Amino acid sequence: MSVTLDVQVPSQYPADKVFKVISDFDNLAPKVNPQFIKSIETVQGNGDVGTIKNITFGNAVPYKSAKYKVDAVDTSNYSYDYSVIEGDSLIGILDSINHHVKIVPSSNGGSVYTQTVIYNCKGAEKPSEEFLKKEKEVYENSFKAIEAYAAAHPEAY
User: Fold this and answer.
1) What is the rounded distance in angstroms from the CA atom of residue 125 to the CA atom of residue 27?
2) Sign of CA dihedral 28, 89, 141, 119
């Protein structure tokens, strides 16, 4: 059994610029949202498909760590897929969590940050609605914080 969460956040910035910023997530997230992510460390690989990374979460999240694997990177279509494969962020009831991030160009010159999160359950128990609501808020707020940082530092992106 699986549960899907869809996140969409519009941006005034074009898809290529947003994807460039999102591609720097490992460096930006701990700077702009240390209460959610303390650090991201590459354990194996160079960032391409197959790379393994550890996330250490901040105090605003009810778990401490996650290990994830990069599943796909498609720079021409502004997409990035990864799967959480270990850690207490699997909350004892999940086998894995698949993330599909895509930046979709908008007709107004901006874009839409989309993230589909698939929680793959071990059995019949699934994440609560309250848990999913909080997760969605974390993803939305993280994107907004990263976007705001990039807007304040245009020379970097």
Assistant:
1) 34
2) positive
Name the CA radius of gyration of the chain, rounded.
15
Query: DSSP class of residue 78?
Result: T
Residues near 42 by beta carbon (within 8 Å), at least 6 away in sequence: 26, 51, 52, 53
- Residue at token pair 């009831």: 93
Map tokens 């699986």 to a residue.
Answer: 2
Residue 110 and residue 13 in contact, taking contact as beta carbons nearer than 8 Å: yes
| Backbone φ and ψ of 119, nearest 5° | -90, 110
d(Cα 157, Cα 147) in Å, to the nearest integer? 11
Within 10 angstroms of residue 88's Cβ, the number of other Cβ atoms is 12
Quickly count: other Cβ atoms within 10 Å of residue 111's Cβ: 23
pTM for the full predicted model: 0.93
Three-point CA angle 19, 21, 23, nearest 5°: 65
CB 84 within 8 A of CB 96: yes
Distance of CA 27 to the CA centre of its chain: 13
Residue 131: per-residue pLDDT: 95
Crossing angle of helices 129-152 and 25-32, in 10° steps, is 100
pLDDT, averaged per 10 consecutive residues of the chain (157 residues), comes to 97 95 93 94 96 95 95 97 97 97 97 98 96 94 93 89
